[in-house]
UniProtKB/TrEMBL annotation:
Homodimer. Pathway: Cofactor biosynthesis; NAD(+) biosynthesis; quinolinate from L-kynurenine: step 2/3; Amino-acid degradation; L-kynurenine degradation; L-alanine and anthranilate from L-kynurenine: step 1/1. The gene is kynU. Catalyzes the cleavage of L-kynurenine (L-Kyn) and L-3-hydroxykynurenine (L-3OHKyn) into anthranilic acid (AA) and 3-hydroxyanthranilic acid (3-OHAA), respectively. Its cofactor is pyridoxal 5'-phosphate. Its EC number is 3.7.1.3. This is Kynureninase. SUPFAM superfamilies: PLP-dependent transferases. Gene3D superfamilies: Aspartate Aminotransferase, domain 1, Type I PLP-dependent aspartate aminotransferase-like (Major domain). It comes from Flavobacterium frigidimaris.
Amino acid sequence: MTFQNTREFARELDSQDTLNHYQEQFIFPKVNDKRVIYFTGNSLGLQPKRTKAYVDEVMNDWAELAVEGHFYAQKPWWDYQERFAEPLSKIVGALPSEVTVMNTLTVNLHLLMVSFYQPKGKRYKIICEEKAFPSDQYMFQSQVHFHGYKPEDAIVEIKRRDGEHNIRLEDVLAKIEEVGDELALVLIGGVNYYTGQVFDIKTITAAGQKAGAKVGWDLAHAAGNIKLELHDWNVDFAAWCSYKYMNSGPGNASGCFVHEKHHNDPDLPRFAGWWGHNKERRFKMEPTFDPVHGAGGWQISNLPVLSLAPYLASVEMFSEVGMDALIAKRDQITSYLEFILHEIDKEVKGNFEVITPSNPMERASQLSVFLHGEGRSLFDYLMKNGVITDWREPNVIRLAPVPLYCSYEDMYDFGQILKQGILGK
């Protein structure tokens, strides 16, 4: 398609967009009494209007039934989490038995590492990407310390080549081969939070397992954003947060994936708790742990139903839309945003550098842009003029045109505000 940097063209794209009406199902902040252009769904998604009804239902059941809500609520609390199995399995490409919801992201990664990071002898090293999200870095450091190793020895970072912003697949594969029989675990972010690079999960998983390691993925920026086939790709485990692209609310519950090949392994260690015990016998208060079959057997505590309610509202919206439709719009609106950036760059004689890969297979709903020659004042101008975006030092803005609630006209308007912010200095 040949794009045009005009309002009329953007509106024409919106008129052809089968997801355009979903904008009206979200609540937008306002700046200067005008709905914002929201580019930070890669940090915290907007609130769906339907969310309140799901939370109110739990509150009303609690008020009217108290403890009996566990069994007699409209959606009984004792098996509330089971309602996620079917819709989440479609979002991440899993069997329903392979997914569950519990805790928060880094907590779940720690718990999964109990099962899947088992250093022994010379096989103790972890491969991750350079500049992983800090929480992952802290997790790796504390895990290897716990097992008696030094981070500088046990943690192997795959680095970017000099002068490049993204990690090459061949460098990942070469590092896996190099570490070889010292490798215990590969754990990488499916989408790098800073650059927006999408990693080849299928190929990297196969390479890590061929080397004798377990392979897991932090899908914080991937779940609800990219096409995932975790079961078919034979991924050992994964976890993701729900508050970015899945719009479940700040700090909300995490999703987990454990491949079915691990479900019947009695020798696989895990931290156990009451809620992971055999559902049919849970209330018999038995002294010996008998795990639920599937990912639910990794649950520990009674689940926070009030937190799960917004997440359920979101995954049911995803079921209506489907990942194929989301990804089709994601690719086009991201390309249109990139086009707008390049057009404005010409008009202001600037020097914008998009550091997110240009290959559509290596990017999703994010463009990270170096604004060479521009400073924090430009970001402040955008924010004051209704563009909610994200600033990373030294001069990078991250733009996430989330397909559920961003429009093509938003992309055009952003370009005009950006131009004014530069020329008006």
